[in-house]
Amino acid sequence: MKAQNDKEVKRGVIQFSLYFVTSVFFAVCVFSMFMKTSSVEVSRIMEKTDVYDKTQQKQVYLTEKIDSIFVFTKLLSSNSQINHSMVLTSLANQKKNAMQNLNAIPERDGKLYRKILGEMDVFFNIKDSLQAATYDEDKYRKEYIRCMEEGVIISRRNPISGR
Questions:
Q1: What is the mean pLDDT of the chain?
Q2: CA 43 to CA 79: how far, in whole Å?
């Protein structure tokens, strides 16, 4: 015995099945597109992370180079027993090496290092001028002290007039 609406029930079941299969197919497509998109996004993030890590390593290396240049510069002013020309040669070589490493870094990432290394010649010229001025000051101070001592000695030797 068949129901009176058997054709409508069959049509409803077939229609439900088509919509269900279409929905499942659409959901699988959306999920696969999401997975593909996220995997591409993750791979791009990893590529950028590698680039940023390499840039950071270069920046750390340059920071160490600048710090060693700073230490050598402090050594110039702290100790008078060292060979200034040798230290200045070493500083020039370190600056040259730092500039070569700086060329491997993009412009915006190495802006501060370029400024520091570019102004280093001015700094060394000022430091040399200060050192020469200090040397001249010490020389004139010693000359002044010597003249004062000679003046005292001469005034002791000469009798005061009128006595």
A1: 86
A2: 54
Per-residue pLDDT band at 128 (split at 50, 70, 90):
confident
SS3 readout for the chain: CCCCCHHHHHHHHHHHHHHHHHHHHHHHHHHHHHHHHHHHHHHHHHHHHHHHHHHHHHHHHHHHHHHHHHHHHHHHHHCCCCCHHHHHHHHHHHHHHHHHHHCCCCCCCCHHHHHHHHCHHHHHHHHHHHHHHHHHHHHHHHHHHHHHHHHHHHHHHCCCCCC
In whole angstroms, give the CA distance from residue 4 to residue 124. Answer: 105
Distance CA 94, CA 67 (A): 11
- pLDDT recorded at residue 44: 95
Nearest of 115, 73, 114, 111 to residue 92 by alpha carbon = 73
Lowest-pLDDT range, 41-45, 92-96, 113-117, 124-128? 124-128
Count Cβ atoms below 10 Å from residue 76 Cβ, excluding itself.
Answer: 17
